[in-house]
Amino acid sequence: MRVNDELILFFTVLKWLFISSLIGCLTGFAASGFISFIHYIIDQSNQYKNVFYLLPLSFFLANLLSQFVLKKHLGTDTLIAAINKNYGKLESSFIPTKVINVVLILATGGSAGKESPCAQIGAGIGSMCANLFRVDNIDRRKMVLCGFCAGFACVFGAPIAGAIFGIEVLAVGVIFYDVLLPAFVASITAYQVSSALGVTFFYYPLKFVPAFGQGFFIQLLTGGIFFGLCAYVLIRAIQQSAAFTNALPLWRPWKGLLGGLLLVGLTILFSRDYLGLGLNLLEGSIKGLHVNWYTFLLKALFTIITLSISRSGSVITPVLFIGATAGSYFADLVGADQSTFAAIGFVSILAGTTNTPIASSILAIELFGATIAPYAAVSCVISFVMSGHRSLYTSQVLSISKSNALPTELGKEISEMSNPGKIPDIRFPDWLKKLLPASRNDKT
Questions:
Q1: DSSP 395-416
Q2: How many CB atoms lie within 10 A of CB 61?
Q3: What Pfam families does UniProt report for this protein, alphabetically (predicted)?
């Protein structure tokens, strides 16, 4: 008897509704527990003004754990590579250790985030469910992706943006539509579970009215270029710092000790504002409170040192902090509303550093309201293009070229692109070649 196609699709939908809801529930419970725990630890440590003096010790211990328990650095990049290359097959031992490392770093004031552990917890739960149900590789990949997206949703407090981010971050220019339904269901379920368990999220709907008569759109376009350049510089700085750290002829834990001492010195010299998650200053800039013009630069410096030395924690929360405070600085520079451009910078630098313009645009809707969304989306896309063929996640597969004028190796990971640090030759279009000197034409 021939089974009706619609009946097969109906049972397929039921199957993924059940599986993704289960993964979302489990991820919501586990991620909420981690978020509540890390916030409790941070609140307790903040009662001691001089807790940052323990940074050298925490960096030393984090690197010690990474060297002897984790034989290699395992983070969001590793998860992306596992999903892209290995159908989401994961080593189960790394998740607890990464959580311990992040707690050590954040408790003492390291400038990092909490997104990576939540995404790892979710991906690990998806992998365990795949083992339990004995699914094939295609379904395993979808289940790991469900948990991956649900983990981001729990941290962002934005289930749709979290789901799209987890899918969009895998490959530049491609979204896997076959995973949209389970990813949405898992993310929404995880978000609802987290909310029910008392995890609170930051929302600040802006009372925004675009003032085109005052050159707002020109300011917006200029801001998108500025945020894209910031994203490009941040990517390069983090990668160069990590390469420099890896090249130092020292035992890895000793590097952690030295990095911690460097952060202690910088904190004494400047302020404790740039340590930890920095949520108070981030939220203040979104609400229009004045911040110093150099705030985003110092936060970037603290983050670069933390991530290149400790090899733990996530980069997303620091990127959001840098984006919001850079937006506040840009608003001061052009005489625009600080709150508006802090919100736009918040999502734009995220789009540029992670190649996720769609997820970042949706994040603007979920956090700041629909009125600012079209303008934030324009800035996100400009930032995405301006950051070039680079990313904080070098395991991303490059599926499109951001410009036909740049030679590109499509289908490869960003880390595998030949000479990523070299300034590429530019491919001029035919009509422009005719206007250039003959000697220049010969080279192109």
A1: T-EE-S-S-TTS---TTSBGGG
A2: 20
A3: Voltage_CLC
Mean pLDDT (the chain, rounded)? 86
Helix H or strand E segment including 193: helix 180-196
Which pLDDT tens digit goes with each residue over 406-437? 777 788 888 887 554 454 455 555 555 555 55
CA distance 348 to 18: 35
pTM (two decimals): 0.90
Q: What is the DSSP letter of 250?
A: S
What is the second-level CATH architecture of the domain 212-386?
A: Orthogonal Bundle (1.10)
Domains 5-196 and 212-386 share a fold: yes
Beta carbons within 10 angstroms of residue 218's beta carbon: 11
In sequence order, which ranges of 197-315 are alpha helices (DSSP H)? 216-247, 252-269, 279-286, 295-310
Place of tokens 């645009």: 361
CATH 1.10.3080.10 describes domain 5-196: yes
User: What angle is formed at CA 217 by the lines to CA 158 and CA 346, rounded to 5 degrees?
Assistant: 30
Residue linked to tokens 């070649």: 433
Given a contact cutoff of 8 angstroms between Cβ atoms, the answer to whether 317 and 113 are in contact is: yes
Compute the distance between CA of residue 385 and CA of residue 364 in angstroms, rounded to an integer: 18
